[in-house]
Amino acid sequence: MSSKLSPAIVFDSTAGMHSREVTLRPAGPGEVEIDVRAAGVCHSDLHIVAGDWPTDRPLVLGHEAAGVITAVGPGVSTLKPGDHVVLSWFAPCRRCRKCVAGQAWLCTGTQAVANTLPDGSTPFTDAEGEQVWPYLGLGAFTDRLVVPESAAVKVPEELPFDVGALLGCSITTGVGAVVNTAGVRPGESAVVIGTGGVGLSVVMGLSLAGADPIVAVDLSPERLAAAKRFGATHTLDGGSADVAAWCQEKLGGVDYAFEAIGSPKVIETLPAMLTSGGAAVLVGMTPTGATGAFDLFELADQGKRILGCNYGSSIGEIDIPKLARLYLAGRLPIDDLIGKVRPLSEAAAAFDDLKSNTGVRTILRP
C-alpha cells in the first residue's frame, strides 16, 4: 500500500460530497496505474450527488478523465508507462457473450456499474484505513488511480488532456448515439431534446453524419445558441413550443428524436415527433425505477421504434481512438464544449457550473 495521501472528491450518503484524503494500492495483475491530468464533470456524477442513484458506500466521484500511465501490473500487454490514455468507464470483461459478439457496451461481466474493479475490490483506502470505492470502476476525481487494462484506451500524445477527458463519456456517448445506436444517414432529419454536454455531442454527431435538418430543443437560450454553433439548423424553446406539432407541421415528422435529459415525461413525447418508421433514441439517463407510457398501437401501426442507448453503443478501445483522430483532423469541434477549467478543490463550484444551463463542460485538474 502506498503511504502517499492524496485529496479525492468523495460522496457518501451521510457526509454528502466532500474532500477526503485517500491512498492508492499498486496496480495488480491486469491493472494499470494512471496519473490523472484532466476530468470532466458529468450529469452521471450529479445523479449520485442528488440521490437519484442511491449508493450504500463512499465513492470517489469522477468517470470522465484522461491521463498518463505511470505503472502496469503483471499480464498487461497493450499499455506501458508513458502512454497517454482516455479512461473508458464501462470497462468490458472481453469474455462474456455480448463482448464476444462485438457488443461490449452490453457486457454482462463488467463490475464497473457496481463501482468496483473487476475482482470486486477497490484500490482506495482513506487515512483511517476505511475502503472508499471507485465510481463506475474509475473514481477519477483524484490525482492517481488504478483501473483494469480494458478501462484505459491509448490515444495520440498530441491529444489535449481536457479533450481526452470528454472523450471518456460525453462525446463518445453523444456521437455514438448518432453513428452507432441510430445509424443516422446523410440527409435524415433529427430533433435533439436537451443540449447539455451530451446533447451538444449528439448535435455534433448529427452534423458529422450529414443529418439535415437538425432541430435542437432546450429551455436555455445560451444552450440553444451553443447548439447552433455545433451544427443545429433550427432551435426551439422547449418551454413554449409544441415540439411534436412543430416537427409534424414543418417536417412531416423527423427520422430520429434524441432525448438527452433523462426525463420520463419528455421521453413519453418522443414518438409523436417521429415520421413513420422513425426512431426515438434514449440517451439521457433517468433515475432508477423510472417508467413511461406510450401509445402502443401507434408504435406498431407506424413502425416507430424506441432505442435504448448505453454509452453510445460504443466499444471504448475502438471508438475513442476514432474520435480522437476526427478531433485532430478538425472534424469535431470539441474545444468549444470545454467551459471553465478548475482545480480539483473547486469541485463544488464545478457542479454549480453543471447546473447553470450553459451546455459546456467544466474540467477539473488535480
Describe the protein's architecture and organization.
This protein is α/β, with parallel strands linked by helices. The chain has helices at 43-50, 97-100, 161-167, 170-182, 197-209, 221-230, 243-251, 264-269, 296-301, 316-328, 347-354; strands at residues 6-12, 16-24, 31-40, 59-60, 65-72, 84-87, 124-126, 131-134, 144-148, 152-154, 190-193, 214-218, 234-237, 254-259, 274-282, 305-308, 338-343, 361-365. The strands form three sheets. Strands 3, 5, 6, 9, 10, 17 and 18 form a seven-stranded mixed β-sheet that branches. β11 (190-193), α5 (197-209) and β12 (214-218) form a beta-alpha-beta unit. The longest helix is centred in the middle third of the chain and has 13 residues, at 170-182. The radius of gyration is 20 Å and the shape is globular. 50% of the residues are buried.
